[in-house]
Amino acid sequence: MKLVKKTQISKTIRNEFSSEQLTIYSGINPISQFMKKHHILQGLSDVFTNDLYNSAKFSDYQIALATIFGNLAGVKHMNNLSAFTNDRLVQNLLDLNKPINENSISRRFKNLGQPCSRNFEDFTLKIMKEFMLRNPIDSKIQTIDADSTVKTVYGKQGGSSVGYNPVKPGANSYHSQMLFCSELKTLLHSWFRTGSAYTSNGICEILRQVQGCLAEVLPNVFFRADSGFFSGELFNLMDEFGWTFLVKAKLTKAIKETLKNQNWQKLDTKVESCEFEYSCTGWSGTRKIKAVRVQTGVIERPMLGEIDYIPDYEYFCYCTNLSNDPFEIHQLYAKRAESENWIEHVKNQLFAGQTLTNNFWANDLLWQLSAFAYNISVMFRSIDKDAKRQEPATFRNWFINVAGKVVCHGRHIVVKMYKYYHYQDKWLALVG
Fold it and tell me: Is residue 78 assigned to a domain?
């Protein structure tokens, strides 16, 4: 087999290697070099200490970095993560002498607890700020899409509880809150929460945290969210920040009655629009509501011995401080649907929330590390236009889970890859 493309790993090998050993995670090495170049590895070692203590065989840093690399490589359970660290290239990158066993991973995250979780939050916001400074958004407005996602759990996971769960009603779950930067497709910030938390609980606090850390790179924000965030407190915060916003309104009984009495403007044969001022209980004042209704059919209703045909409408209602007309608002909100794909990428392609313990703060850290792996994937793929468009799972199959040979040369290790690898040109474009 002819081999080509040698990627030098600039570190000393401390343990004995055979002359040639197979690795299936060749793509982890350039990602590691990317993280080193942008001082991400150094930052991780500050959050998760690289020191060994109490005769521990693995440092917190090694375990955290193994989790990030494992998520990138498609590993989603602790026992599989142990097998992942048996790969010689992975062991070299993590400076390991042997695989990390799954009990060590679980126990260490439980011991790190809430303080480490909060420190890692601050670190991820710092990394996002540096990335946004390196990759300024072309448009004058930065869009933040807010959403929440439910993860059903089976067993006695710490902090899980019964709440809104459309997939399995009545089951315990977690209900995480997520903020995406739409232009960069990055996960700006997220909060891991118990399943009984309402969609908008804590949204003002998480936005204050984002604003405090990222104000320099978010000078002109457009905030967009679904009806779960229809909150007067949130709208007041938007005014305080000077942000524009677009939030889908809840079609409560009171709003439905108000809509019936509006002067609807016909846009075409089936679409009409209106706008009006509205205030809910507890709001400090009125807000502009813009609505669109689309005729979906007719309802047959007997009337004095005859059949009366009444139009049947589907209503779309939004609270916003934008000056656009209602139909433009409706189209602008529809673009938010892409954030649903990013949630799927974080949960099902980087496996956030799928590796769980019986400790809430350990689960919080595991969630954050998976979310961070998603952002590393986005940041690394942004180097190349074609790779940038791919989903994390596709990118993994093309660039990360790629067979190669780990060959020892003196005191260094070289990764050799197959000369006729189908995506060789794309690989070279990334690793340059």
Answer: yes
**Other CB atoms within 10 Å distance of the CB of residue 123:** 18
| Pair 171, 152: CB distance under 8 Å | yes
Asked whether residue 93 is domain-assigned, the answer is yes
Same domain, 104 and 240: no
- Per the structure, the count of domains in the chain is 2
Q: What is the rounded CA–CA span in Å between residue 351 and residue 369?
A: 10
Per the structure, the complete domain to which residue 83 belongs is given by: 3-112+358-431
286 and 402 fall within a common domain: no
Which string of DSSP letters, residue by residue, matches 209-267?
A: HHHHHHTTT-SSEEEEE-GGG--HHHHHHHHHHT-EEEEEPP--HHHHHHHHTS-PEES
Site of tokens 């977690």 = 174
Strand partners, 306: 303
Nearest residue to 274 (alpha-carbon basis) of 288, 262, 260? 262
3-state DSSP assignment of residue 161: strand
Is the same domain home to 148 and 297? yes
- Burial of residue 258 (CB within 10 Å: 0-12, 13-18, 19+) is middle
CA distance 365 to 315: 41
Q: Are 119 and 95 in contact (CB under 8 A)?
A: no
Structure tokens, 138: 């072309």
Mean pLDDT of each 10-residue bin along the chain, 432 residues long: 39 39 86 94 94 83 95 88 88 90 89 94 96 88 93 88 91 94 94 94 96 93 96 95 96 92 92 94 91 90 76 94 96 91 90 88 95 95 86 90 80 76 78 69
The domain boundary, picked from 349, 380, 407, lies at 349
What is d(CA 345, CA 21) in angstroms, rounded to the nearest whole number?
A: 32
CB-based burial, 371-408: b 16+ in 10 Å, e otherwise? bbbbbbbbbbbbebeebeebebeebbebbbebebbbbb
Of residues 399, 375, 362, the one with CA closest to residue 78: 362
What sections of 55-176 are H helices per DSSP?
60-73, 78-84, 88-94, 102-134
pLDDT at 4: 41
pTM for the whole thing? 0.90
Same domain? For 246 and 144 the reply is yes
Helix (H, G, I), strand (E, B) or coil at 133: helix
Beta 287-303 vs 306-320: how paired, if at all? Answer: antiparallel
Residues 67 and 157 in one domain: no
Helix (H, G, I), strand (E, B) or coil at 296: strand
